[in-house]
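For the sake of transparency, this paper describes our internal protein records without simplification. The record that follows is passed on verbatim for readers who wish to inspect the format:
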Amino acid sequence: MKIEVITSLNAKLKETGFGSELACNDVVSAVKLMGHSVLVTVCGSEEDLTRVVERNPDLVILAAKYMPVENGRDVWFSDYFTQNNITFSGSDRETLKYDSDKVLAKEHLARLGIKTAKHFTVIPGQYLIESQLPFAFPLFLKPIDAANGNGIDDQSFVENFDEFKAKISSLYAIYEQPVLAEEYLGGREFTVAVIKGGNGAMRVSAIELVPPLSSGTLRILGATVKKHDTERLKEIELEDICSVKDMAVSSFKGLGVRGYGRIDVKMDINGLCYFMEANLVPGMNRGTSYFPRACEIANEMSYDEVIGLILDESFSRVSEKQKFNEIIEQNAVSLAI
């Protein structure tokens, strides 16, 4: 099979994706072991995308969601390859919006009866006094669409109105969009790698994330912690594993995820699970990214096995397309005769 791994240069570092070009090369190595022809294409222009279409690969593996366009509209790879009839890995554009917009994902799942933290969005100056806030402190503040813990630090946890105003102003100055304010859930934190194969079977790998103590008794899983890999990844205690997995699978299905995705879950102080966010183009760095590490820790899967499983659903769609094209060709020959 002829395959290309498609990525882009996202200078803003806001969006989710496999990671650096090194991570893409990790994926390439795993795909080559399966016996396929594969290369990495870094797309920075419409011409780059046109050349991919001209090469007509059997499958493109999307390592990023879109290609940023200066002074223009970003080109979403899922839309582009759909329009050009090329099979791509992962979810379609309609579902990927839940990755890019945390609020949209929360609201959608809440309508389905899935627990998610109470939240609101805010811009500087919107609330003049504490009594105007939708609910009481403590709150947790973060960007609506930033990935990799960007914008999250010790100051994200706010206990009074002055701290609230300061963090809102800081985030708004950087991201230039409304800030997500959530009720603070004081329980443990989890991430779950979910893979749905071409036959519909699911492989669920759930682990607990334990950030180092930052201030007092707080454990904040922010950008600095993730950058330096100072958090601990561990197996989930037996009494909690079912509730964490159930929340992740319900969220995965509720969002309509195709193929694979990572679901973040958090507990409150009473041990109840809540959906936090979805990462539908998760990091794939060998040895460090949460998705392959969760599969390794929870299910003893090697990196190469993980890549094989997440592509299983994509390969099944490629096969269906090839069979359909063969039928069309056979019918055309029959009509010609």
